[in-house]
Design a protein that fits this description.
This protein has 191 residues and is of the alpha+beta class. It is built from 6 helices and 5 strands; from the N terminus they run H-E-H-E-E-E-H-E-H-H-H. Strands 1, 2, 3, 4 and 5 form a 5-stranded antiparallel β-sheet that branches.
């Protein structure tokens, strides 16, 4: 039969959190964060990843034009995300509006990671220009001629539509007197 200690060793559980800070992350702040997490027996912590500056970052909708530092922490002592959030704001000195602590297995966080994995991002900044298909020019004589032909065909389409509409509205020949009489019917008889 196994001893109680062996069960405890086999059942060692870790608690994974994602810590997001929308504040300039200095070495002093990182050291303070690591020493604060020692209370919960930090097992590992990833190097901070910096997002590009965004007008309204995903988890920080009240902030404008901020970059976010994201770190993954693995702790062995049980703690909730809210407790860790409160503890970091108090001990490290990060404002509450600039910090988010979330479980890594939170459904929204997992959906974000899946969306990032699905979308393949390729930087076009350092790539060569793609060979453009210049067979269809957007300027010059050929372009102007094709544009005029398209306009002319549209005129023909519109004129056919208007002729058909006029035939449907046609109620008989109108004389000038009947048109004048109908326009001035409220003024009395026409002399």
């Amino acid at each position: 039969m196994k001893s109680f200690k062996s069960y405890l060793v086999e059942n060692e559980q870790t608690y994974n959190f994602r810590i997001k800070m929308a504040e300039n992350l200095s070495d002093e702040t990182m050291d303070a964060l690591e020493s604060a997490l020692q209370k919960y027996e930090i097992k590992s912590m990833s190097k901070p990843k910096k997002t590009p500056i965004q007008e309204h970052p995903m988890d920080f909708q009240t902030l404008q034009n901020a970059e976010v530092f994201i770190m993954d922490a693995e702790l062995t002592y049980p703690v909730t995300a809210h407790q860790l959030y409160e503890y970091i704001t108090q001990t490290v000195g990060v404002p509450a509006s600039h910090l988010v602590v979330i479980n890594q297995d939170h459904p929204e966080e997992m959906a974000r990671e899946e969306a990032i994995k699905e979308e393949e991002y390729e930087s076009v900044l350092e790539t060569d220009y793609a060979d453009a298909d210049n067979s269809k020019a957007s300027f010059g004589d050929e372009y102007n001629e094709s544009m005029l032909k398209a306009i002319e065909s549209r005129k023909m389409e519109y004129s056919a539509i208007f002729k058909a509409a006029d035939k449907q509205d046609y109620a008989g020949p109108k004389t000038e007197a009947s048109a004048t009489a109908s326009m001035m019917s409220d003024r009395g008889p026409v002399k």
